[in-house]
Amino acid sequence: MKHLLKIAFTFLAATLFTAATAQSTGAFLKFDLDGKHISVPANELGTYNNFVSGDEGQKTNNEHAFYTNSSGKQAYKLDIMIHTPAHANPVVGKLPFVGTIYKTKDPAPAVYLYMEHTVGAERNTYCSTTNSTGYFEITKVAAGWVEGKFEINIAKQFEDQPVLHITNGSFRFKIDKEM
Prior knowledge:
This protein is mainly β. It has one domain (27-174). The protein contains one helix and eleven strands. Strands 1, 2, 3, 4, 5, 6, 7, 8, 9, 10 and 11 form an eleven-stranded antiparallel sheet that branches. The longest helix is centred in the N-terminal third of the chain and has 22 residues, at 2-23. 25% of the residues are buried.
C-alpha cells in the first residue's frame, strides 16, 4: 500500500509539472523559408491589440499584431496582423489573406502577413494580398493565448516577383488588452 501511494503521488507530481510547463511555454514564431528553418526567440517578439475606427476606405476592426522586433538580430522579420470585428478577439478557424490596407469589402476576420529581409544595408519587403496562396489557421485560443499554423507564397511588396515560400509556420502569442 505504501508503494502504491508513492507511485500515485509521483504520477500526480509529474502530471502537475507537465501541465505547468505546457502553460508557460510563452510566445514563439517558427517557420521554414525556402528550406531554411527560422525560429524567432521569444525576447525578439512583440504584440499589440489596436482598435481601428474605420472610414469609407478602411473597415472598422481590431488589429491583433504579432511581430518580430526591429531591434532583433533576425535577417527575416515576419509580422502577423489578425483583423477581427471591432472589440473582438481572434477565434479558432481558417482566415483568408488580405493586403496592407484592410478595406471595407475585405472579410472579417482576416490576416495580413509582412516579411522584411535584410542583407547588409539592403532591405526587401514582402506582403500578403487577397491573391496570396497558402493558408492561415488559428488552431487554439485559450487562457488569453492564440496558437496557429500557416503557409504562404508571399510576393515582394509592389511587385509579383520574386515570391518567398514560407512553410511549416507555427506561432503562439498572448492577446494584449485593447488600446
